[in-house]
Amino acid sequence: MMSFFSLILFVLFVFLFIREKRRISLSFLFIAALANLALSLVAFSNQIPWVNLIVAAAILASVPLSVLFVSIYLLLNGRIMLKKESKKLANMLSLLLSLLIFAMIGMFFYIFFISYNDKFAVFYLGTLLIFMYFSFVFVSFLAYAIFYHYWKIWYKPDFIIALGSGLIGGERVPPLLASRLDKSIEQYMKYHQVPKIIVSGGQGPDELLSEAEAMKKYIVAKGVPEQDVLMEDKSRNTMQNMLFSKAIMDEMKPDHKSIFVTNNYHVFRASIYARLAGLKKCEGVGAKTARYYMPSAFIREYIGIIMMYKWWHLAVVAMIVLFTAMILRSVI
């Protein structure tokens, strides 16, 4: 029965993925299908003597060990980020998340093994449910974002949209943006110099020129003909990148296909904006990012995803709080 349900989930995922792969809901279906498949394998192992005990022991051991490993990894990564990057909140996310996990572990041992109290125990379980919910959303997002990033693009684009980022000193292209532009040039050469490159990025209050202008100078200096580089210099965020670039493409070729280039951690969320902007054929290509930077970058993307659908998440949190309050009333 469980294997049949796994098949249903898998078929449903494939069907929806083929129709429109740029949806966050697919990430939950993706994880549900994988989890159900794993449960089916566990159920199958019960039919084999001793194997079920080994599988059960492995599962019981893997959960706390995984939590411990992730906590230590994020803590060490946080220290590296503090050494290599500026001490901004966005660069401290992996460190802060590790401290939160350690705090949850510490609270568990204190409440249930050192100073047990019914009220505190119920409050902790409610907090744990909220933490587990957001952990599930994060794991789903991360797994599907990686899967989506490596999915091959099967069509030939008419346009390549290079998404901008901040400039150094108000006019120079930083390494992060340079990696996007180099990848855009690589894609331009891959498709035999046929697509037009749209450099997309407006001018910030602390910038001497628009990101698009700086990006165009960089690409042209690398040997791309100037007439093949179009500027979109009004956008201030990813959604505007997509909307304003779409306007340029619609004017030049109404029935267009495109790809966008950003850093690998940003591909999936940017693809959602592309769908919301009405770009029917627009998939993402990711430029490489330094490995030490990836955890904080993915956490930042995850927060962005949460904010995009904040009312859904607030509704879930409200239900958990209500459930916890009902239990607390019965305990008092």
How is the main sheet built? Answer: 5 strands, parallel
Our Rg estimate from Cα atoms comes to: 24 Å
What is the element string, with H for helices and E for strands? Answer: HHHHHEHEHEHEHEHH
The structural domain count equals 3
Report on the architecture of this protein:
This protein has three domains: 1-47; 68-151 and 293-332, no CATH class; 159-289, HUPs (Rossmann fold), CATH 3.40.50.620. It contains eleven helices and five strands. The chain has helices spanning 2-19, 25-45, 51-84, 93-114, 118-149, 175-190, 211-221, 238-252, 267-276, 294-308, 310-331; strands at residues 159-163, 196-200, 229-232, 258-263, 282-287. The longest helix has 34 residues, at 51-84. The chain has a five-stranded parallel β-sheet with strand order 3-2-1-4-5, sandwiched between helices. The chain is of the alpha/beta class.
In short:
This protein is of the alpha/beta class and 332 residues long. It folds into three domains: 1-47; 68-151 and 293-332, no CATH class; 159-289, Rossmann fold. Helices cover 65% and strands 8% of the residues.
Jot down its keywords.
332 residues, alpha/beta, Rossmann fold, 5-stranded parallel β-sheet, 11 helices, 65% helix
In terms of topology, how is this protein built?
Blueprint: H1 2-19, H2 25-45, H3 51-84, H4 93-114, H5 118-149, E1 159-163, H6 175-190, E2 196-200, H7 211-221, E3 229-232, H8 238-252, E4 258-263, H9 267-276, E5 282-287, H10 294-308, H11 310-331
Parallel strand pairs: 1-2, 1-4, 2-3, 4-5
Helix pairs in contact: 1-2, 2-5, 3-4, 4-5, 5-11, 8-9
